[in-house]
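Continuing the series of single-chain predictions for the mutant panel. This is the parent chain; the variants come on the following pages.
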Amino acid sequence: MYNPAFDVTQADLVAGIVTEFGVARAPYGESLAAIFDRKAHR
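Parent structure:
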């Protein structure tokens, strides 16, 4: 039985990554790091 746990979306179609701590936008390395930094300082 084939049951993938995720959907693969082309990178050029992704406008942001929504998390419970904010929305990360490109460049993702920087914006995700900023979100995790804000989370750590709560």
